[in-house]
Description:
Elements: H1 2-6, H2 26-36, H3 41-48, H4 52-66, H5 71-80
Helix pairs in contact: 3-4, 4-5
Amino acid sequence: MHRAYEQGELDPPAPAPDGLDIVLTADQHYLLQARADDQSYKAIAKIRGVRIYDVRQAERALMSLLGAKSPAHLMKRGRELGLLGVQKEASSSAAGSLR
């Protein structure tokens, strides 16, 4: 879905006013961007040095934080809240906890 927004195949959702106070950690932003880029749980887990279970749990927590009901909805919420397609100042190394 994120790719469809980037390629202009879908109109991006209008910005949501409810995201003004949401700040993601570097790990949360990495996970959101990685899933938007269609990286699998397995690939993310390998890159970050964690279990696949930890990646799935982190995604569920992120969905809860952003008010998303599914992984696809998470991508939409990420766009609405201005969290996808934006370079963040906070960065972390490729290895991280996601726990």
